[in-house]
Amino acid sequence: MSTYLEQYGVGDEQRDRIRKRVLIGVVAAIALAIAGYLFFHNFAEKQVAGNFLSLVNSKNYQAAYQEWGCTEQHPCPNYDFRRFMEDWGPQSKATSPWKVASVDACKSFVTVNVQAQGAELQSLAIQRSDKSLGFAPAPECQERQWRWGQFFRRIFGGSK
What we know:
By secondary structure, the chain is an alpha+beta fold. The chain is about 45% helix and about 15% strand. It has helices at about 10-40, 45-55, 60-65, 80-90, 150-155, and strands at about 100-105, 110-115, 120-125, 135. A hairpin with a 6-residue loop joins strand 2 (about 110-115) and strand 3.
């Protein structure tokens, strides 16, 4: 026969275990939500840039020009196919495939910096609203924002 004092505190231990499990679950859910946000925040815009670069790298310049939002029948104002070929075609002095160098997010667009060996850094802007492609005004977003990557690189070192 058990006595009254043998069962003393058993309910408290169970309650503490439940609290600990709930707290761990909440922290894990928050960490997964933050990781998902950071991974998927600019995902669609990166896909547009990647598709454009794959077309340019495969020398399918007509399709790349269409991805830019222009056609030979309806060229973009101030950016006809001849100028497009000067920037992205064989005349561009690029000796290696174009690759994404960095990505910076603004409120209305995402700046994707692309580079190829022998060519200058090109800054592309992908609009968030309609995923249209164009040149970015600057290699980095000019809006005020937290620059966590730069902050941690300054503290811990690293490239760029």
